[in-house]
User: Fold this.
Amino acid sequence: MTFPYRLLATLIGAVLLWPALAQNLPPEVDVALARAGVPREAVALLVVDAEGKLQPRLSHRSTTPMNPASVMKLVTTYAALDLLGPAYQWRTPVYLDGAVKDGTLSGNLYIKGQGDPKLVAERLWLLLRRVQGLGIQRIAGDIVLDQSAFAPMDADPASFDGEPLRPYNAAPEALLLNFKSSVMTFVPDLVANTASVQFEPPLFGVQMQASVPLANKPTGTNGGCGDYRATLRADFSDPARIRFAGSYPAGCLEKVWPVAYADPASYNARAVAGVWQQMGGQLSGRVRLGSVPPLTLALPPKFETVSPPLAEVIRDINKYSNNVMAQQVFLTLSLSAQGPATRAASRDVVQRWWQQRISTLDAPTLDNGAGLSRESRISAQALMRLLQTAYASPLMPELMSSLPIAGVDGTLKRSQAQLLGRAHLKTGSLRDVVAAAGYVHAASGQRYVLVALINHPNASAARPAIDALLDWTVRDNGAHVPD
Assistant:
């Protein structure tokens, strides 16, 4: 790309290398922080013109590196847009190492993962349906899943916060199927006094309870639902069985509950075998991990399944803060023919990109690219540089449209900010961390970059302070003097 990003970043840096200003915070923000028990010293705030033409409207501890939680996804997704291009797609090739005759493949079928972040259950079904479209109903050998494009990662889903059944803790893999989660749909039947339970995808060898009794008769047209997950008393501890000791509230309508599978190491094999069996396919061997043989790999694949384009993928990542998808994109940045992608190699790629495209200053401290980390650090000023550079680039529409809209969708759908639809912001939250960064369209017509980072044990109680900052920014009257 020929746009002079580094020159732009240097000019912005020359204008905006201000010291951390000791200015007063907006009163409503101060009040919200005080109510939450969060001191000013735990907060970094920055509101500045998106084009860098005006003096900062607010700057508080803007040069201090802080944990941004999922706001770090802004770095990953914009780097990917710039380095890979918004039309980039992941390809998952399928190889055969035997002849097909009378509906039988006399050999193995290989599925080679290349990092596709969105190889969900529906697309796995379509992949296997294409296998059947080759005239294959029975596989005399094995189905081999090739994960070699990514180096092995920490596969313990409890390592971050002790919550192994949370889908956000799924580890990245070259062949990531349905985020290694089982999606359960509960559909109540008032006549039968039960709720059916549908599982997607079917997992081979796992007993899945097909129905649960209803808890009570609804007292009105909008009978209470309550905490249906607690009422179900689900037990996911046994990888061979999913069961419910409780019931489903009759007042609930259809509900969808995704849960990470208890044994992630066996998930892919169970999912592929389960879908293949559900489709009527036969398998003489088994589904296992392995590599495509060099001679087979040297030949063109029988077919490839292709992901949605990157511009669409980052909408899922940023709108809904999907951690494992962000890590898949992050690792793709170091994917090459020379060796498997690693986090360290991707960190190096992003650091070089930052120096060339964003600034020679304020480089972020990256971990896994998703912000699901206690080690990640970035300053409000560095996020400002990134957002201003993106705003001036041809990729601005793709990045901005991927961000949640305040009060409208994604992680900001329940925002308490008063003026809806005026901000596109990436949010982030961890224990002791709340953050937001993005673009705000003020009432004056001015477009601002807003960054708010809060690191404190009471951070979760300080969300109203970010809403107050957003409202304060939106109410801008345009009375600012150009530099």
